[in-house]
Amino acid sequence: MSPVPPVSDLSAHIGFWLRMVSNHVSQAFAAKLAGKDVTAAEWSLMRMLYSQEPTPPSRLADAMGMTRGAITKLADRLIAKALIVREASASDGRAQTLALTERGTALVPTLAALADRNDAEFFDCLNSGERETLVNLLKSLVERRQMSAIPIA
Q: Which of 28, 33, 99, 150 could serve as 54's disulfide partner, Cβ 3.0–4.6 Å?
C-alpha cells in the first residue's frame, strides 16, 4: 500500500476562517431579514435603489455584478411584495426602470438598522483598531483582486 500524501488541514486556510465568519454573519442576517419577508439579495437591490432616480435594470445588473435575468427575477419578487415598481423610462418609453415604492422606501431604514445590529452582534467583540484593521485588510484584498460584484448571498 502506497503512503498517503500529507494534506493541509481545513483550518490551515484563510478562506476557511473567512467562510466561517461570513457564513455565521450571513445566516444571522438572513434570519433577521426573513422576519421582514425580505431576502439578502432583495435587500441589496432595495438598498441600491434607495435615494436613486428610477434606474434601468441593466445598470443595476452591472453595478451588482449580476445578470439581467437575475435582476429581473429579484425585481419580480419585489414587485409582487409591492416594494418596487417597474415603469417605462421617462426618457425612452421603450426602456424600463425600477424604483422603490413608498412602502419599499419606508422599509429600507428598518432593514439597514437590522444590518447595523447584525454587524454589531458579530464585530463589537473587536476594539475599534481591530475592526479598522480587519476592514482595511478586506478592502485591500477586494481592490487588489479587482472584485466588484456586490455580495448578495
A: 99
